[in-house]
Amino acid sequence: MRNKRKVTEYFRTLHHKKAIRAVTAASLMVGLPVIGVYGYLRAVKNFKLDYVPLKLNNKHSSIKGMKIIHISDLHYGPTNKDKKYFNRIFDHINSQHADLIILTGDYFQWDPNYLYELPEMLSRLRAKIGVFGCLGNHDYGSCYPGSVENDPFEHHITKDALERKDIRILTNESQIITYKKEKFNLVGLHDLWSNQCDPKTAFQNVDTSLPTFVLSHNPDTVHMVDQDYDLMFSGHSHGGQLTWPLFGSFVVPQRSQNLKRGLHYISDRKRIYINRGLGHTFRMRINSAPEITLFEII
Ligand SMILES: [Fe+2]
């Protein structure tokens, strides 16, 4: 009698488990394609403005209230050439009346012909102090990494094209900015994958007792800088780009898998912000909306 009850209970549990598995499988079969279609059709262009208040550890009251806009990873190229989308973004940025605009690389993708269209569009950006940037891995060659020999799309061509439109590109170098009688440093690194990233050279003239901001495309560089800084602006990860419910992101091409998006504290005077980017390497985004970040120094 007792055995019969156990057998009945066993089959009831088995049916219950099978039912749960069947419902889960059906939900995934229906849900994932729906999410995928949304990611393909809409999510790649639904950009968000994220507000981040940033408290500095040292006392530099004059730069309190300074507004910094940060964007990254535009990937303008054959698969991502909607000028209306980018112009809508640049209008939105200008409406924020930022003091400083920071760009952290991957401006172009695949085709060198796009190299000259984007700087023209970027020249519309307005900020009281100016527009500053560093380079991303895609800015060192049309197929970088893995550029072919004699690739005409070299990093200095990218840098020149942007600087001709008043976008200052910092490659292992620094600049002192004066804002409301206060000084602060902007330090830009070469991209990590270019094998030219050299924080020591970039920091050689930097007085780190001043507020110091670092521009570096790849978040992995956060562990390569010995000097103190207040914030590293970074990109590269696209926030995971495809972050599926339950499964998370499949591929993020970097070692620091925890540094995919948002603000992270590394130590007392070492923080990093990873922007989700505005473009894409292939036309899809899931749970990783294109991002404009507005920082306010408080
Ligand atoms: Fe990128």
What would a concise description of this structure say?
The chain is of the alpha/beta class and 298 residues long. Helices cover 24% and strands 23% of the residues. The protein has two domains: 1-41; 48-297, Purple Acid Phosphatase, chain A, domain 2 (4-Layer Sandwich).
Describe this structure as you would to a colleague.
With 298 residues, this protein is α/β, with parallel strands linked by helices. It folds into 2 domains: 1-41; 48-297, Purple Acid Phosphatase, chain A, domain 2, CATH 3.60.21.10. Helix content is 24%, strand content 23%. The protein has helices at 2-41, 83-94, 117-122, 155-163, 199-202; strands at 48-54, 67-71, 100-104, 130-134, 167-169, 173-179, 182-188, 212-215, 231-234, 243-244, 248-249, 262-267, 270-274, 291-297. The longest helix is centred in the first third of the chain and has 40 residues, at 2-41. The model has no long low-confidence stretch (mean pLDDT 84). Bound molecules: fe (ii) ion. Residues 73, 75, 106, 136, 236, 238, 277 line the site of fe (ii) ion (FE2).
**Can you identify the CATH class of the largest domain?**
Alpha Beta
By CATH, the architecture of the largest domain is named 4-Layer Sandwich
Distance linking N and C termini: 74 Å
Characterize the largest beta sheet: strand count, sense, and whether it forms a barrel: 6 strands, mixed
Low-confidence stretches: none
Query: Ions, cofactors, ligands: which are bound?
Result: fe (ii) ion
In spatial order, strands of the major sheet run: 1-14-2-3-4-5
The secondary structure category is alpha/beta
Residue share in helices?
Answer: 10-25%
The helix count comes to 5
Give the strand content.
15-25%
Mean pLDDT: 84
